[in-house]
Amino acid sequence: xxxxxxxxxxxxxxxxxxxxxxxxxxxxxxxxxxxxxxxxxxxxxxxxxxxxxxxxxxxxxxxxxxxxxxxxxxxxxxxxxxxxxxxxxxxxxxxxxxxxxxxxxxxxxxxxxxxxxxxxxxxxxxxxxxxxxxxxxxxxxxxxxxxxxxxxxxxxxxxxxxxxxxxxxxxxxxxxxxxxxxxxxxxxxxxxxxxxxxxxxxxxxxxxxxxxxxxxxxxxxxxxxxxxxxxxxxxxxxxxxxxxxxxxxxxxxxxxxxxxxxxxxxxxxxxxxxxxxxxxxxxxxxxxxxxxxxxxxxxxxxxxxxxxxxxxxxxxxxxxxxxxxxxxxxxxxxxxxxxxxxxxxxxxxxxxxxxxxxxxxxxxxxxxxxxxxxxxxxxxxxxxxxxxxxxxxxxxxxxxxxxxxxxxxxxxxxxxxxxxxxxxxxxxxxxxxxxxxxxxxxxxxxxxxxxxxxxxxxxxxxxxxxxxxxxxxxxxxxxxxxx
Length: 483
Hints:
Helix content: over 70%
Order of helices and strands: HHHHHHHHHHHHHHHHHHHH
Number of helices: 20
């Protein structure tokens, strides 16, 4: 039995809060930087082209090392690998905070992404191993889901506050005390345990090929708009990605201890959950980033006002993630809440697809925000449970890495495609004589509409999810209802 399951009730929930604080630090870092980019550009002399690498360097390593990070946790112990990843991330944050040159900041951001990938991949496994009872696991995954879903908006608020009152350096330096506290509390609350797959050999060839493939794919995507989607560079990188993925699959089918056992995708819920994860991440990234652009560039909101505009959605997500979602899962299973939540989110995106140029917050922004918060709050928990609950404990880190990779790749690809569609539509409208604000609004409308289609397709895929009936569901539901 995993030693993490032997912790007393109070310690397990304290450990969850500490793990989620570590995850929140990683989630914040994906959005907190966006608000500070203009200040970073002015201070360090970045050009418009080179500035994107402050974001892209992080995305490249974060996406590339998720699978490997999860597997290392299975092999060498989830707590040990989590603490190593946390240390790498915290030290890299210090380097970012004191950076005085472009090269140092970009290099430190790449290292930060590596540490963030390891923390993200292993934390979900630790939570799954801490909570084995259905009701407790549903509650714990709800808390984790809220941190992942709501952290982005908190990042916008915090980024605006720190950059405006102090300087851009502090969006990184604020990670230092958090990292130290999380490290110390993890040592106190989480017992050391050998990896569930301890004794197996690391699939080095598989690790190298899939990491390179993921990094090349993200590089091709994030530079697609600039280089051109049909350019030799983009097509060449995507072709190299395809070749590496074929090599990876061949290797995985032949080695004794594969990095990613292909049999994992023979489990229906895991396979469907990852397809849904890709589609939904594409839709949610569209909502978060494109709606932020709409509010800033069309409605004239400040970064702080944008962060506040997301608060209603975050509060609804909090209400569902921190209690209601667990009750819904125990009452209706995984499939029905997942489908209902995704359809609700699709409706929210559809509302944004009609938001006018001179939109009013209450009439044109708030309704979509409320539906997206409701949909996200309902769907996130069952999706994570579906992606993790069918795997053996020895593969929990791997499954965590796979679902995180699906979200990251779906988000990166979806955002790049939707941003490209929005830009092309805006350029077309401007060429036809539309005013700049009207052209921008038309481009955003198209991006929101396609995002709504992605969410609807995710809901259709969710219909094919297998609903498991747990023997202890009645008791778990009763425990949840009385908590």
